[in-house]
Amino acid sequence: MALVAVLLAAAVAILQFGLHKVPEGTVGVYYRGGALMKTIAAPGYHMQAPFITRFEAIQVNIQTDLVRDIPCGTNGGTVINFEKIEVVNRLDRSKVHDTIQNYGVNYDKTWIYDKIHHEINQFCSGRTLEEVYISQFDTVDEQLIAQLQKDCTEWNTGIEIISIRVTKPRIPDAIRSNFEAMEAEKTRLMVANQTQKVVLKEAETDKMKKIVQAQKRAEIS
């Protein structure tokens, strides 16, 4: 009876600590004695040796990494802050083992979070505040996608960069007020310019009408 009880307790322990679930959208990788095993588990229930093998779920469907609070300095010395950048990406299922072996389960820290910080600082340091905040802001996401994908492909990470969404950086209040005033003045000048064009066009049209009328009167005479 004692042996049966021991065997039963062992079976319960194996089930309790060995049975695990790999969620849909992920695959399972295993470590034994600190070494990454070659086994890649599909979604579903699986068994592992309790207390010996460690399991990690690795996401392989589309995911969004949110990178927050990225400070950077423009070439004029103004420090600004990008509050949020969203990176939509996906890890190639066939590259999971190599990626985890080379860069660990937190591979996205190296290739997405840290890279975004680096690339944003590179972008800012070579541009003026006006270029970063206004005239070239719409090119930031395209440049980030191109550079991140280039590095991920070059280092065979298996990461596909699908899209990047960048929010407007936070700049000092006094400078922002100046930019807003400049934009308001530009808008006022554009409206005035368009109004002037309309007035000139109307005057030209009126002049042409008078010329035509004068020609008709001359012909009649």
Description of the structure:
The chain has 221 residues and is α+β, with helices and mostly antiparallel strands. Helix content is 52%, strand content 28%. It contains 6 helices and 8 strands, in the order αβββββββααααβα. It has helices at residues 2-18, 96-103, 107-125, 129-135, 140-154, 173-220, and strands at residues 19-22, 26-32, 35-41, 44-47, 53-59, 63-73, 79-91, 159-166. The strands form 3 sheets. The chain has a 3-stranded antiparallel β-sheet with strand order 3-2-5, covered by helices on one side. The protein has a 3-stranded antiparallel β-sheet with strand order 6-7-8, with helices on one face. Strands 1-4 form a two-stranded antiparallel ribbon. Strand 6 (63-73) and strand 7 (79-91) form a beta hairpin. Helix 3 packs across helix 5 (140-154). It is elongated. Residues 3-7 and 9-13 have low confidence and may be disordered.
Overview in brief:
The chain is an alpha+beta fold and 221 residues long.
SSE class: alpha+beta
Strand order across the largest sheet: 3-2-5
Major beta-sheet overview:
3 strands, antiparallel
The counted number of beta strands is 8
Outline type:
elongated
What is the H/E string? HEEEEEEEHHHHEH
Question: What does the radius of gyration come to?
Answer: 32 Å
What is the percent of helical residues? 40-55%
Low-confidence stretches: 3-7, 9-13
Oligomer: single chain
CATH architecture of the largest domain: 2-Layer Sandwich
CATH superfamily of the largest domain: Band 7 domain
Domain unit count? 2
Topology:
Elements: H1 2-18, E1 19-22, E2 26-32, E3 35-41, E4 44-47, E5 53-59, E6 63-73, E7 79-91, H2 96-103, H3 107-125, H4 129-135, H5 140-154, E8 159-166, H6 173-220
Helix pairs in contact: 3-5
